[in-house]
Amino acid sequence: MALVLNEEQQMLKDSAAGFLAEKAPVSALRALRDSEDATGYSADLWREMAEMGWPGIAVPEEFGGIDYGYVGLGLILEQAGRTLTASPLQSTVLVAATAISHMGSQAQKEQWLPAIAAGEKVVSLALQEGAHHAPEQTAATAAANDQGFVLNGEKVLVLDGHVADCLIVVARTAGEPGDEHGISLFLVDSNASGVSVARRSMVDSRNAAAVSLKDVQVGADALLGDLNEGSGGLSYTLDIANLGLAAELLGLSQEAFERTMEYLKERKQFGVVIGSFQGLKHRAAEMFAELELCRSLVLKALQSADTGDENLPALASAAKAKLSQVAQRVTNEAVQMHGGIGMTDEFDIGFFIKRARVAQHTFGDYNYHLDRYARLSGF
Amino acid sequence: MSEIEQFREETREWLEANCPASMRTPARGEEDAYWGGRNANPANPDQKVWCDAMASRGWTAPHWPKEFGGGGLDKEQLKVLRQEMARIGARSPLESFGISMLGPALLKFGNEEQKQEHLPKIVRGEIRWCQGYSEPNAGSDLASLQTRAEDKGDHYLVNGQKIWTSYADKADWIFCLVRTDNSGTKHEGISFLLFDMASEGVTTRPIKLISGSSPFCETFFDNVEVPKANLMGEEGKGWTIAKYLLTHEREMISGFGVSGSGRSLGQTAAEIVGTDATGRLRDSALRHDVAQFQLDSLAFGATMQRVGDEAKAGQGLGAASSIFKYYGCELNKRRHELNLAVQGEAALGWDGELYNNGAMPRAWLRSKGNSIEGGTLEVQLNIIAKRVLGLPD
Ligand SMILES: Cc1cc2nc3c(=O)[nH]c(=O)nc-3n(C[C@H](O)[C@H](O)[C@H](O)COP(=O)(O)OP(=O)(O)OC[C@H]3O[C@@H](n4cnc5c(N)ncnc54)[C@H](O)[C@@H]3O)c2cc1C
Fold first, then answer.
1. B290: phi then psi, degrees, rounded to nearest 5
2. How close A10 comes to chain B (CA, Å)?
3. Upper half-sphere CA count for residue A161 (Cβ side, 13 Å)
4. Cβ pair B333:A332 closer than 8 A
5. For chain B, N or C: smaller number of CB within 10 Å?
6. Are both A76 and A182 inside the same structural domain?
7. Which residues in chain A are contacts of B376 at CB distance < 8 A?
8. Do B344 and A131 touch (CB under 8 A)?
9. Testing the interface with B: which of A29, A132, A333 to mutate, by most B Cβ within 10 A?
10. Which ipTM value was assigned to this complex?
11. Whether residue A75 sits in one domain with residue A28
12. SS3 breakdown of chain B: % helix, strand, coil, rounded to 5?
């Protein structure tokens, strides 16, 4: 497939950029942070996004979506990365809708996908338990009983968990932590008895929660996908999730880079603009090269998701690893090249470095995906 | 017993008797440290007890001459004192720009009255100083500073603005670079003034950092009258003093690069991430990065020691000292970046007990300033290239 955006995709990208720059610039995230907003994103903005069809962009038409695919969603996430827009795009649209589309029964899809596509429901994946992303280490349990399953466990970094209507809980139905076999996924009502959700304030001022499950009874129909064999579907979901995060990191890095280049052309020291110093110029040119590589890799990986390419897992890990590495470099350089002002909260650059590290970490960091890429590449 | 061994024994006993238990734990960041000053507001009363005890022996500034309140220790004794403090985990009794920056410049360039007036108060932690160097348009190009000091006979009239002045809102006095003459090159006509922050016409506005705290300020001078006696060195010759002081500031900042004792990053990683059957860290990429960091830290520590020992052996301060600020800051930034990779989710929480109020990400963010404060990374590299390597401009 040609590595180029078609006219329609270009239009989507432009309109998303225009919309987000106007309605949800970085100052909107700052305002949410400073007012300690209880939701953590703007419900009005989310409604407007829903009117444009964004929550259903990758949802099949028969379930109320527009089935535009992951290249489309990636373009939107890239623009949301530029503006650091807080919304349920990641938790619900990128991750949960993918899991349900991919693994859900007809009834589960009918129940959840149209509601997600309409922007009416927030659903989130409750996966991580320890300090690091390690799906096969899942220790939360789901024990079968005559009414279905009883869930127990502790989860962290559940995106938008504090406002989610439903949680997709990854739990162990067989085997030991470390085993790929024995993992199952469950749709759990956030208000079910035994579920407690605590919002966590993270460095990026976005939304994450810790979820505790104590003897949570769910019906047999809560099982999402096959019993004990959830790893495959989860793995696919995580590939998509990491692709989306890579797209967001691309937008974020590109924006931080462009802002820095503007500053290099404007700030004067020693009677000249600082962009005339070779020590900065070469680093800028290197970053430009890295970002161009990133753009190609992200598009290629997104396309592979839409075409059902068998290389999707390797490409997803490659994209997440590369973007984590480059985002780290670019955001560090952005602070450094701004000098003192880059260290201040009044200036926006700090929001970029903060969001970058959380997005890098979420669903596996550079090290995790570098290793996975190597494994998937046969070494 | 040799004299130095006797000194060690006495020091050990004295520290044992005088260092409060709570001061035998590391301070949790800059804000938890004791800075003294007129408005000192110690988080823990032991901080003042510890500072006063150390100051009574001159050991807040152990290498300064006794006549100005310092400890009068020679290099050997200083080393012993540091070792003995480290042995019981004693924290530094006083964080002070007076000690780390102004003092050395005062000793070299101050007149007798200025030394008598200021040094003992610095040693005792009575007066807290801030550094008025940077201005909005004079950062890396510090010498282009424009804060004016007009000669009004018995005093200077100071007008202008400083920026990024660390703790200006908490400091009692400022050492400040001002322009007394505009006619020559930019390096000429700079003078070095000392004045009270309580003087009429001085105002400060705290600036919040990305780490969430507000250690630095904008500082404004509106017709501030500074007595002529507060000029340090000659009028118009302040640049030499400014540069000398910067070398001391940079030395202090390079210290951030020295890894503390206690558990290494690698050991912490092994605990959090786990090891395989052969004891190797499970995450091979992380293992590589942490190992590289630790060996660079080791080599950096050895370099600092070598330069120190060579100086003691009378070989002078080698060219290697020029890399300290640059390398130390880069190491410290790497340490914090790696700490994020090691700690994972635990290092991304911003508030709340569970995340220790975000101590880890805040320290990570603060470390980004290391390669900006006291002269940026780029400025340091330019200095090495020009002054040490002799490469042309
Ligand atoms: C945490 C912190 C505390 C501070 N505390 C104090 C204080 O107490 N008192 C005080 O006076 N100042 C203080 N400073 C200010 C500090 O000294 C300045 O920020 C620093 O000197 C850089 O100046 P600037 O911010 O104007 O950046 P600029 O000089 O504008 O630099 C912007 C970028 O351009 C680069 N650059 C500039 N010139 C060159 C060149 N010739 N070649 C290559 N690259 C170049 C810089 O390295 C930087 O990356 C503090 C700063 C920080 C971050």
1. -70, -40
2. 35
3. 27
4. yes
5. C
6. no
7. 336, 339
8. yes
9. A132
10. 0.96
11. yes
12. 50, 15, 35
Q: Both A111 and A143 in a single domain?
A: no
Q: What is the CA radius of gyration of chain B?
A: 22
Record the tokens describing residue B180, joined without a space.
């007394």
Distance to chain B for A347, nearest Cα, Å: 9
* The two structure tokens encoding residue A309: 């390419």
Cβ of B350 within 8 Å of Cβ of A339? The answer is no
Q: State the total domains in chain A.
A: 3
**What Rg value do the Cα atoms of chain A yield, rounded?**
21
**Parts of chain A with a pLDDT under 70:** none
Please compute the mean of the pLDDT values over residues B102-121 and round it to a whole number. Answer: 97
Provide the residue range defining the domain that includes A113. Answer: 7-120
The single-letter DSSP state of residue A66 is -
A204 touches B: beta carbon within 8 Å:
yes
End residue of a domain, out of A120, A139, A154: A120
Among A228, A249, A264, which residue terminates a domain?
Answer: A228
- Among A312, A265, A204, smallest CA distance to B210 is for A204
Asked whether residue A1 is domain-assigned, the answer is no
Q: How far apart are CA A178 and CA A199, in angstroms?
A: 28
Q: Is residue A379 lining ligand 1, measured as CB closer than 6 Å?
A: no
Instruction: Clarify whether residues A256 and A331 are in a common domain.
Output: yes
pLDDT digits (tens, 9 = 90+) for B313-352: 888 777 888 899 999 999 999 999 999 999 999 999 999 8
Domains of chain B as residue ranges with CATH: 3-109 (1.10.540), 128-236 (2.40.110.10), 241-388 (1.20.140.10)
Cα B334 to ligand 1 centre (Å): 20
Strands (E), A85-242: 123-126, 141-145, 148-159, 166-172, 183-189, 195-201, 207-219, 223-224
Does B249 participate in catalysis according to the annotation?
A: yes
Please indicate, yes or no, whether residues A262 and A354 belong to a single structural domain of this protein. Answer: yes
pLDDT 10s digits, B171-214: 999 999 999 999 999 999 999 999 999 999 999 999 999 999 88
Q: What is the CATH number of the domain that holds A15?
A: 1.10.540.10
